[in-house]
Structure prediction request, 278 residues.
Amino acid sequence: MPLKQINQAAKVIAGGDFQKRIELEDRKDEIGQLAESFNYMAQELDKLEDKRREFISNVSHDLRSPLTSIRGFVQAIMDGTITLEDQNQYLQIVLDEAERMNKMTNEILNLTKIEDKDIQMEKAPFELNRVIKETLIHFEPLSVKRQVRVEVVLADVETWVCADKEQIIRVLHNLLENAFKFVDDDGLILIETTYMGNRVQVSVSNSGEYIPKKDIDNIWERFYKVDRSRGKDRVGTGLGLAIVKEIIKNHNEKIWVTSEEGEMTIFTFTVSKFEKRA
Prediction:
């Protein structure tokens, strides 16, 4: 009986086997529709399980690497392989790896909180141009070191928006961090704002290698890295763009990326415009 078959399949899936499917393709009635919905549910659960396994694998990989370095250098210091004169140099590496692990665990926690809506969003008016300029200040040393030219093109002298200021700062910081990771030395990063109806469109562009089409849809996934050989900084957590996407999603706004060979890679998001009263 179809209902008995559905009941048995439900128990199998409840036991963790998400590949179970119901074969009732010849049924066009409500039972057939139920079976079709059941199979769709099982398919989505199977995808979630694959992502869970991939997430655990990626976390394990990204934690194992710094832990191996820390253990190796500490052991070398303790057994005297590293001389006293060189100890500070290697202790700095240990500290950097510990900071990398701390950053990754914090970003995992923050992403989980954002996804679960545990971080309360506090929308309020603020002046976007000032936020952009203040965020750019943090990247001045890197810009000088890499000899990267940074240009800012603003839609107006003042641009007022309504959003969670701290979260938008996080979006800008992560997008700029990503742009500096992949911009070529002596390259260009462009931040631009334009009006689009009742929205402000913010774009962060960088010269350098483009993102292959096969990777465009996946760059928003946790720990996804386009190519570990790309970019000047290969020690990122792979969580920055996932956090950006969730923040913009929680604002009911949009974000997208365009990247073509020979052209700049452009990340663009929208934010609600705020009209100041005279």
